[in-house]
Amino acid sequence: MSAGDTPHRFSDSEIAAVYRAIRERRDMRHFRPGPIAPETLMRLLDAAHLAPSVGFMQPWRFVRVTDTGLRAAIQALVEDERQRTARALGEREAEFLRLKVEGIRECGELLVVALMDGRERHVFGRRTLPEMDLASAACAIQNLWLAARAEGLGLGWVSLFDPEALARLLVMPAGSKPVAILCLGQVEAFYPRPMLEQERWASRQALGGLVFENRWNNAASTLFADDT
Ligand SMILES: Cc1cc2nc3c(=O)[nH]c(=O)nc-3n(C[C@H](O)[C@H](O)[C@H](O)COP(=O)(O)O)c2cc1C
User: Fold this and answer.
1) 30 located within any domain
2) How many angstroms separate the alpha carbon of residue 26 from the centre of ligand 1?
3) What is the pLDDT of residue 184?
4) Which of 83, 185, 202, 222 could lock onto 107 through a cystine, CB 3.0 to 4.6 A?
5) Is the CB of 104 under 6 A from ligand 1?
6) Ligand 1 near 159 CB (within 6 A)
7) In a domain, 225, yes or no
8) Is residue 203 within 6 Å of ligand 1 at its C-beta?
9) Domain count for the chain
10) What is the pLDDT at residue 225?
11) Cα dist. 42→37, 39, 46, 118, 153 in Å?
């Protein structure tokens, strides 16, 4: 056994599949029309529900949107926020407006992920970092995202919305909060690179500049020897 190997290791092909899903997961905004089989949707929701959560509080709630009127109302909310975001961006307004930032109308399934109400009762791991509930919900979304990629389905995370307005549309209780609109569906092809990179909005930073050793901004030079 070489350094780093453990008896608990997956097989080489299983490991490759895990890394492939991570590498080839994309945020998708272009969808092919067509439904998702209910059993597939259930596998994806099960994957989300297996995520880690602070104090095992499982703060995630999923609202499946099947009503076409409600879907249109959600799309309108997002469009409103897209325009406000564009104005807030100042000199990048026109460039932003050219980007496709959601696929709500076209996707086969629309899900809203929300944080449950009554979260203040959960103190374990959240006394100094209450936002760990959101981190937990993000873990659930990432599980769903990776599982969807493995199933050949695209997912797009949309966060351009006023959470209070969306909560009203979904008749959510006080204290709960929607944190993501997920567009899930079949796709023609997965973007080979992040769409925002393809459209030259942003590019992936070099990892070596983001990993420090012992103190902030001190390069982890033994890990990134080639970069120095
Ligand atoms: C918390 C979160 C919120 C996001 N919100 C949006 C959004 O509102 N609209 C959008 O087009 N993409 C959104 N994205 C997707 C990012 O733009 C995307 O992850 C990033 O450009 C990298 O591309 P990739 O996911 O394909 O690697 C969001 C991603 C995350 C993690």
Assistant:
1) yes
2) 9
3) 98
4) 185
5) no
6) yes
7) no
8) no
9) 1
10) 84
11) 9, 5, 6, 26, 13
